[in-house]
Amino acid sequence: MKDKEGLILQGCGGDLQEWENGVNDILTKQNILLNGTRFKNVMFFQKDGLTNLLFPFEDVEINIGKLSMWRLQTHGQFGGTWLSDYVDNKLGGFVESPEKFKPDCALIGANGNIFNLLGIAKRTLIDNGMVAESKEMCSKVYQCGSYSEALNVLGDYVNITSVDEDFEDETESVVMTV
What we know:
By secondary structure, the chain is α+β, with helices and mostly antiparallel strands. It has helices at 16-29, 64-73, 75-78, 83-90, 114-127, 131-142, 147-157, 163-177, and strands at residues 6-10, 43-47, 50-56, 81-82, 104-108, 159-162. Mean pLDDT is 88; it is low at 166-178.
């Protein structure tokens, strides 16, 4: 949930659905939740022997100033904190997702017809055991409205290299084996 925010309440014992309903009702009555919106995707997790609830700020309209004051006023009761503060202070920060692998693919210098380039990129992915990714890439390319947009999609899946670079690599390996 990096780059997202929410409210965490700590030490929520008992029926979690009652907590969700009760918090939604309280925040609605205090005009913190606006225009009939309610927290729907409430999640729970355990940390340090406590059951905690996360109320993500997605698909809700909130008066954030009032919520901030409510959180401070009820901190002794609910241990309320922001998701970003909790993750930084209790969990050591968000985990970065690893860079996804993109195999090298010689497209620079190849016939520039987008269908030719797509075929080369697709074959490269399949040769690297990335069949699902090849299908996903093709589907996205077919939906593109321009050549440059399609090239960007290819670049999301493969590391675009030059045909000349591949030729140089093959030449070097031949020279080494002689």
